[in-house]
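call fold(seq) -> tokens
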Amino acid sequence: MRAPTLDGTSDEWRTAHSQFAPVARSPSDPYDRLACALHGRDRFPDARIKEFASLADNELEAAIENTREVRSTLERRLRQGGAVWRRLELALFSCDHEWRRIAAGLNRLAGTVECGGLVKLALGHYVAYLRSREFVLRELLNAR
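ret:
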């Protein structure tokens, strides 16, 4: 039986990051494969820094607060244990690193198999991304 796959990334993203991504030790293990696919997605993209640097102070503060609120919500859900939720709320996910597509892929997968552990793994990486994003945005604001 083949392990479930995630259709969450584009060929362009995989190609651009393939030389740095770890190789799954066990290609049939969906957790190992997902961990490899999420490698490097916990950093705030440099290209987005320029975009946020051009925002006014109040807009940057709003972006920081929004990031903090989403991160806090997800951390709280992860701490609750058990099922995080049956369907990931796509509006909580950034399009950076194709996070929204990954969440949509997990939603599709959840309709066919039990994937609570995969969801928790992905959310752990996404929370790390949100922490990175929040840190970078605060540094941008403090540097003004």
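Helices lie at 11-17, 30-38, 46-53, 57-79, 99-110, 116-142.
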